[in-house]
Amino acid sequence: MSYPAKLEAIISLFEELPDAEKRETLIAYADQAKAQEPGEGESFDLEDVRKDEECTDTVAVFLRVDPAGGAHFRITLGRQVQTLTKAMSSILCKGLDGITPEQILAIPADFVPKIVGAELVRLRSQTVYYLLTRMKGIVKVWLRRKQAGES
Amino acid sequence: MSIDSNYAHPEVLVTTAWVADHLKDDGIRIIESNEDVLLYDVGHIPGAVHIDWQRDLQDHTVRDYIQPEAFASLCRRNGITPETTCIFYGDKSNWWSCYALWVFRLFGHSNVKIMDGGRDKWIAEGRPLTREVPSFPAAEYPVPSARLDCEIRAFYDEALAQSKASRPLIDVRSPGEFKGLVTHMPEYPQEGVLRGGHIPGAQSVPWKEAVNPDATFKNAAELKKIYEENLGLKPDDDVIVYCRIGERSSHTWFVLNYLLGFTKVRNYDGSWTEWGNRVGAPIEKSA
Fold first, then answer.
1. Which residues of B touch A116 (CB under 8 A)?
2. Measured between beta carbons, which residues in chain B are less than 8 angstroms from residue A120?
3. Which of A24, A99, B115, B159 has the fewest other C-beta atoms within 10 Å?
4. Testing the interface with A: which of B39, B130, B174, B187 to mutate, by most A Cβ within 10 A?
5. Which residue of chain B comes nearest to A87, CA vs CA?
């Protein structure tokens, strides 16, 4: 299946990078994780703030769906969250920006190793998958509420 | 804060302040080892090299550590000679730095120290980090004649014999893992274990009991109370420690071996991911 255009562009970039540059680029995305946090005065349709078993610290996911149906995410990460997870928060906030909730639910997680690379995909770094699960989770709730409102 | 002189071997710990004052000393190598695979790249102590527990210390086809040739090669490319004092530090209260130190000891490298409090304490004190990766001239490191598995490492059969003989076995995992309620520690993925519980006869002393909130080791009196008074261990006891893959137990091995001066402590690195999956291995569950 094809990925949303913005995510596809990020995946293509990573696939072309040698390992050393891949690491540098992941760190650059991780450095941008703070910029994905909610801004002053921003409002959202849904907020999901949780500390789950699967992740080392609290992860807060904020969702706004614009009138045209495009989803926009903000994510706040606790201090103990691993660097790869920080990078993935920036990648997903940018890569999924503006697509519909239905499109988000259809995205497979198989792009993660394409971005992270074989050397860094480890059992103890599986939380890189966790963020997509959380984003899909909040989108599902939004869709259920929308459907309930329409019925 | 200074290092407690009542430890059996206080010389194996250095403070963050000491490291800050000795960054450019000849004869030392500062080594960062983490669980977070990108943390070193994000920023590290100036002059520190990176040793990755999985990439650098483990054999990639056999579940085992690297062989002596690979260890010598690792040391040479990091500018480490047999005389170099290796000072380890890292994330997770120094789990992985203790693990790396233990592997260095497997190859007979005994000039080793831990920076008390690890990476978190260094950062909490506002000390500098850099992204500059240092480069050192290749050093001479002869290939060690053997890996000293029989001295500080235990295998399944030895852990089983320990259990059957009712000799001390310390399970350093979280209480839920020990009781068999969960097969992984909180906040971590399942690392492929079929059964929960512990080795029959093992006593539960989570690794975390040995550290303060700032990731430094508790003082000698506090450690003695935990392991000697409460658990009844004696420094000449033959002790085996284990966890799930051997990193948390490396931390406890360090405490018993260096801080309390126990003379016969072995780390069963196969740990629960071997024992919990092994056909025929007896397990015990407790409330």
1. none
2. 37-38
3. A24
4. B187
5. B38
Chain B closest-CA separation from residue A34 CA (Å)? 15
Residue B55: closest C-alpha in chain A:
A119
Question: What are the pLDDT digits (tens) for B92-144?
Answer: 999 999 999 999 999 999 999 999 999 999 999 999 999 999 999 999 999 99
Provide the shortest C-alpha distance from residue A150 to chain B (in Å): 38
Residues of chain B with CATH 3.40.250.10: 10-147, 150-275
Which of B37, B186, B192 has its CB closest to that of A125?
B37
Burial of B201 (0-12, 13-18, 19+ CB in 10 A): middle
- Give residue-wise pLDDT tens across range A53-94: 666 778 899 999 999 999 999 999 988 888 999 999 999 999
DSSP, res B211? B
Q: Do B38 and A119 touch (CB under 8 A)?
A: no
Superfamily of domain covering B10-147: Rhodanese-like domain (3.40.250.10)
CB B252 within 8 Å of CB B207: yes
Question: Rounded to whole angstroms, what are the CA distances from B274 to B151, B157, B160, B194, B277?
Answer: 20, 11, 12, 10, 5
Q: ipTM value, please give it.
A: 0.79
Token match 């126990």: residue? B262
Q: For A37-41, what is the mean pLDDT? A: 94
The full set of domains in chain A, from first to last, is 5-150 (3.90.1010.10)
